[in-house]
Amino acid sequence: MNDERRRYFRINENLRVSYRLVSDAEAQVFSKQTKNDRDGINYAANFDNRIQTLLDACRIQAPIAAELIDLVNKKLNFVIQQMDIDAGLMQKVAYSLRQVNVSACGMAFPCDELLPEGRYVQLDILLSPGDLHIVILAEVLGCSEAEAGAEAAYIARVNFSNVNNNDQELLIQHIVKGQSNQLKRQRLQSEQAQDQL
Question: pTM for the complete prediction?
Answer without folding.
Answer: 0.65
